[in-house]
Amino acid sequence: MTDNAAGHAHPFAELSDYNAIPRLGGLALSPDGTRLVTSVATLNPEKTKWQTALWEIDPDGKDLARRLTRSAPGESAPVFAATGDLLFRSERADPDAVKDEEEPKAGLWLLPARGGEARLVLSRPGGVSAVAVARDSTAITVVAAMNPGAMDAKSDGERSKARKDAGVTALLHEDYPVRFWDHDLGPAWPHVLYLPEIPLDGPARDPVTEAEEDTPDQITAASAGDPSEGRVEVRDLTPDAGITSLGGDDLALSPDGTRIARTVEVAGASAAHRRSRIELVDTATGESRVLAEGDDYNFGEPAFSPDGGFLVCYREAHSTYDEPPDQTLWLLDLATDTGRELTPDLDLWPGSPTWTPDGSGVYFTATERGHHPIFRVEVGSGAVTRLTSSGYYSELQVAADGLAVYALRAAYDSPSRPVRLDPAAPDQDPVYLPSPGTIERLPGTLQRIQATTEDGASIPSWLVLPDGASADAPAPLLLWIHGGPLMSWNAWSWRWCPWLMAARGYAVLLPDPALSDGYGQDFVRRGWGQWGGTPFTDLMAATDAALERADIDHTRTGAMGGSFGGYMANWIATHTDRFDAIVTHASLWHLDGFSGATDASYYWEKEFGDPLKHPERYDANSPHKFADDISTPMLVIHGDKDYRVPIGEGLRLWYDLRKRGVESKFLYFPDENHWVLTPGNAAVWYETVFAFLAQHVLGERWERPDLL
């Protein structure tokens, strides 16, 4: 690590130090409340990718964290079964299996509560993507991708092998969509597999496959002679899975293990109309019935009450040409199949509902004014209490005795750390639990500032000031614009980390313009359908306010953004020359072209309309229409595997810049997606941005990154 001006080490001056910071994700609490487990990602020995391992955190905060697992493929997504055993996903090879030519896919593994080696519970040729457990039962449910017509792991593997041996990679689609973020959809689709109990020893068995070798008694129960020889039957509850299974990872298992609530994608009359609903599946028969749906709503994130009599989920009202989306918590009485709003007066978008142990209330999170607090709503009265006032909280875990709530807390001055909270106290400070990844020192300070627009709106921003910034030594300013656009700057970001820029002397402005969430519906409405209007003027107002400060240099400025932020960077480039340099990542350039090529065209068309019938918003808000007005040097960055903002957007922008002689560079990643995920490419991303900004904002000589 490198010493900063104050003489204390921080990991932001060197990218190698920054990449080496442990990164936490996921949290699991044991049924008895004595064990807390998280997943920690660190660099592999070759420093070419991040490896994950499971670490145990002391819920009391007295002992240091300790590592539980270690393998080259890594382990993630921990969850405790009702037995106290720890389940997790891993691509490690089964030591008892015959060596296969194929690389292992993510399977479900178990680390026994009583100690001993981890063992494989379930594997599938297409991997395991999710697992849900029953609170009061040994039952678990797993989501695994399987080919059409496959009845078990054996037949699924045979179908995959047949395609490979024949050299077939083609996909035949009969519905929309066909891609999602960075991968093609099909031919395998998510299936919900049910295990009435965890196998005593060795992987669970498919009844069709194993029936060829064993008697039925051996398939479904332990033999009388040696219980360790028993196997558990795997039931496929969705044998006809297809495109409706896209929400398949979003599911919950009832406390007694007899029912599954799952999110299902539903096609409307055309590809432009899609919605999600919640279905209730009987685990014994596989019979399914619709529990919550509506033509103008999406439902998701189901959670059973402790007694299994109720279900809470979110209900999202679809966006339209005139209105942005809205979201509330929805409470369903399973005995009467009736539902009602649980948070009707909350002008925020609640999500991640988690029940209190006695069923009297529901915890949830929602973005609010640059933070993402935990709230609690009482089921009877509807009274809402905010438990935390600052920070970004996720991965809520509630102790069975109701005496504590655990979560991961991040903020713009801290990556995720495990914390303990009082279950009812309002606006409390959390108790931090010892864990890897704690950063002791930052190369600057974080402030909250406000700007006022001509229409009287207040535009909030986070401002990162580098060490040493003062009226005598003002810092150059970087305007960073968030993506979404229905999101806000409210949490630590490894991909867009302002502290790396602060370590190089920049002040970083992180504004929340119109369309940002967490400020109420009216704030979103201010920018709805007019991306180049109010969001742009809000960003300029925030920039003006920051540049009035004596500790910021108004003569040296740059602007950056990714995704929607990249769109805004392009819009800024076409509508003002006030910045010395602009960096645009995964950006929208030609709105009409983007709207039909993105992986979720139906979503964007709700706001902008059919481009053939209603071209007005496309014409008024598409940056490419104003390409002749660009004079600011631009760095264009795009990944070829980006299906949300397809590579065509970056390629056309690059051509339009070069055709007009605009000083520009194009950083292209053939194997990255909407993000840049591998350590080497992430380092090159930052190195190129550093060099480009140093040339045009700081006036230094251009230095091409060594590996480019």
Summed up, the helix count is 13
The structure class reads alpha+beta
Which regions are unreliable across 5 or more consecutive residues at pLDDT < 50?
1-7, 208-230
Major sheet: order of its strands?
A: 33-34-36-35-37-38-39-40
Ends apart, CA distance between termini: 25 Å
* Helix amount: 10-25%
The coarse silhouette is globular
Q: What name does CATH use for the topology of the domain at 444-696?
A: Rossmann fold
Query: How many strand segments?
Result: 40
> CATH superfamily of the domain at 444-696, please?
Alpha/Beta hydrolase fold, catalytic domain
CATH class identity of the domain at 444-696: Alpha Beta
Q: Mind telling me which CATH architecture of the domain at 444-696 this is?
A: 3-Layer(aba) Sandwich
Estimated radius of gyration: 26 Å
Largest sheet: 8 strands, mixed
- Percentage of β-strand residues: 25-35%
Mean pLDDT: 92
How does this structure look, described?
It is a single chain. The protein contains 13 helices and 40 strands. It is globular and about 70 Å long. It starts with a strand and ends in a 12-residue tail after the last helix. α9 (591-597) packs antiparallel against α10 (601-608). It is of the alpha+beta class. β5 (50-57) and β6 form a beta hairpin. The strands form ten sheets. It has an eight-stranded mixed β-sheet, with helices on both faces. The chain has a domain at 444-696: Alpha/Beta hydrolase fold, catalytic domain (Rossmann fold, 3-Layer(aba) Sandwich).
